[in-house]
C-alpha cells in the first residue's frame, strides 16, 4: 500500500518559517511528479509547488514565489517544502501529492496518491 505522510506543520508568527516533509512508502520506484497543495477553510484546493523526478523542473504558484522552495530526496522517497516569510494568508491544511506520471497537470485530482495533510497556521 502506498502511503504519503506529511510532517512539519505548526503555528508560527507572520514572517516565520516552516519546513514541511512528506515521506512516501510502499512504492517500488521514485514518483515522477511530486507536489504540495493547500486548502484553506471554505476554499478550493490550490497547487502550491511541484517538482519533477530529477528535481530540475519546479513550479510555484504566484502567491508563494520567492518564499517557498520545493526539493526532494529520491533515495529517501521524500519531498520537502521550505516556507519562509510566511503570511497569515498562507494558513491552510497542506497536502503532499505524488504520481508516477510526469507533471502534465497541476490539479489535485490528477495525482493518484495524496497524504492526509498537515496544518499550517500563521498568526499576525
Notes on the structure:
By secondary structure, the protein is an all-beta fold. It has strands at 3-7, 10-13, 18-25, 33-39, 46-51, 58-60, 68-73, 78-83, 92-99, 113-114, 118-123. The strands form two sheets. Strands 2, 4, 5, 6, 9, 10 and 11 form a seven-stranded mixed β-sheet that branches. A four-stranded antiparallel β-sheet has the order 1-3-8-7, with no helix packed on it. A hairpin with a 6-residue loop joins strand 4 (33-39) and strand 5 (46-51).
Low-pLDDT stretches are none
Taking the alpha carbons of the first and last residues, their distance comes to 40 Å
User: Which sequence of SSEs, written as H and E, runs from N to C?
Assistant: EEEEEEEEEEE
Shape: globular
Q: Which structural traits does this protein have?
A:
124 residues, single chain
Write the layout of secondary structure elements.
Layout: E1 3-7, E2 10-13, E3 18-25, E4 33-39, E5 46-51, E6 58-60, E7 68-73, E8 78-83, E9 92-99, E10 113-114, E11 118-123
Parallel strand pairs: 2-11
Antiparallel strand pairs: 1-3, 3-8, 4-5, 4-9, 5-6, 7-8, 9-10, 9-11
Amino acid at each position: 500500500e502506498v502511503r504519503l505522510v506529511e510532517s512539519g506543520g505548526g503555528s508560527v508568527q507572520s514572517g516565520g518559517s516552516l519546513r514541511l516533509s512528506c515521506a512516501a512508502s510502499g512504492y517500488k520506484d521514485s514518483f515522477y511528479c511530486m507536489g504540495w497543495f493547500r486548502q484553506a477553510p471554505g476554499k478550493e484546493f490550490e497547487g502550491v509547488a511541484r517538482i519533477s523526478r530529477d528535481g530540475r523542473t519546479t513550479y510555484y504558484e504566484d502567491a508563494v514565489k520567492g518564499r517557498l522552495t520545493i526539493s526532494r530526496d529520491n533515495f529517501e522517497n521524500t519531498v520537502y517544502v521550505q516556507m519562509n516569510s510566511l503570511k497569515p494568508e498562507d494558513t491552510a491544511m497542506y497536502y503532499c501529492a505524488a504520481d508516477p506520471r510526469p507533471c502534465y497537470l497541476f490539479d489535485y485530482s490528477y495525482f493518484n496518491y495524496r497524504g492526509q495533510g498537515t496544518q499550517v497556521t500563521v498568526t499576525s
